[in-house]
Structure formats: C-alpha cells, structure tokens
Amino acid sequence: MVVKDVRDDRPERDYQSFNDRELVSMFTDGDRRAFEEFYKRYHHGLMRFIMSYCRDKNLAEDVVQDVFVKLIGFKVRAGLVRNIKSYIYASALNRCRDIVKKEQKNTALGDNGSNQSVTDDSAAEHIDIEIMNKNIQNLPERQKEVLLLRTESDLQFKEIASILGISENSAKVNYFYALTSLKKMMGGNFNE
Fold first, then answer.
1. Does one domain contain both 96 and 28?
2. Residue 44: which domain range?
3. What is the 3-state secondary structure (H, E, C) of the chain?
4. 53-88: pLDDT as tens digits
C-alpha cells in the first residue's frame, strides 16, 4: 500500500516570495517547505555571526538549532514577535552570551585557542587573521556585538539596533568605535 502525502496535491508555491511572517505562519501550520525556505534565508548568516562570537563550530551549530526550534514555539505562534529576523538574531546572541558567561565561570583564565585549521598557504595572513580575531574578542562587549552583526551577518544598523535593544545612532557609534579601536590595536594596518 502506498501512502500519498496530502500536501502533494497542493499547487507549487514560490516560497521565496513570502515574507518572514508568512513563512512562519505556514510552517507553524505544518508546511515543511516553508520552514526549509526560512531556514535557508537565515542559517548562513546566523552561523557566521555565532561562529565569530563563540569561536566554536559545534557550539554554533547547537545554537542555530536551538534558535530555530525556539522559533516554532509559543511566542511566534502567539504573534508576540514583531520582527522575526531581529528575534532570531537576538535569541542567538543571548544564547551565546549565556554560554560565554558559563565558560568564563568554569574555565581558568587563559587562551583556549582556536580549533580552526589553517587552509591558507600564507602563514603571515593566518597570523594577521588570528591577531584580528583576538583583538575583536578584546573589544567592549557592545562594540563586539555591533561589529560582528554588521560584518558577519551583513545587517543594517536599524536591524542591529532592534536586535540589541539600542537606538540606531548608538549602533552606528559603537560600530565606529569598534573600527577605531581595531585600527589602533592593529597599529593602523586595518582595512574596513
């Protein structure tokens, strides 16, 4: 006996044409393809941001999964979330903050290093990237968050402000200060 999925009789939809709220509504009603489209839209940007923030690929994958599972939960279904993109980035950031705080409490002071392997042949370039990453981690927390959301997730200042609960002007100022600080830390050898 062959069981046919009733969804097979539905006309093909162009899921890319739906906005975030429509996709969330569809996937909370059981439309798997709507969830796949939403996931496709935000997975890469979230991974880049979380990897830059937490510096651990396995941890980043866990956070992304948690964020998407949480998205299906009550708050979105109840319509309490106004800007879904801001909600998922804020959820990811909050989860990362919690993890970083917990790690700081559980680990002795010191550099854990990076688990990333070097695939580039240029050792000098690798050293520059490592120095840059360490300098980013040394920025004040708010500046680091704004910088990473802007550079790794390519978000607009208005979106960053919404995610962090600050004004758009404050996001711009923190970004400017982050770049200025990085330039000083890098001895002026830093291209925006």
1. yes
2. 14-106
3. CCCCCHHHHCCCCCHHHCCHHHHHHHHHCCCHHHHHHHHHHHHHHHHHHHHHHHCCHHHHHHHHHHHHHHHCCHHHHCCCCCCHHHHHHHHHHHHHHHHHHHHHHHCCCCCCCCCCCCCCCCHHHHHHHHHHHHHHHCCCHHHHHHHHHHHCCCCCHHHHHHHHCCCHHHHHHHHHHHHHHHHHHCCCCCCC
4. 888 888 888 888 888 877 766 555 556 667 788 888
